[in-house]
Request: fold
Amino acid sequence: MTKTDKELAVEVAKAFIEANPQKIVVAPNNVARSTKPLNLGEVNGIIKSVHSTLQNLSEEK
Reply:
């Protein structure tokens, strides 16, 4: 069974989130800070962008 564009978009978003976890960064002056995690708006944007791209690719066939 093939996956829909929506299912593929969600899988890509999940992989993107897993590949970009929140990290602790230590600056040269020994100040530690954490990187900014993705917010819901950014995750929604990833899903919409990938879904749109997949639909455009399907139309080009």
Summary: Residues 40-60 form the longest helix (21 residues). Helices lie at 5-19, 40-60.
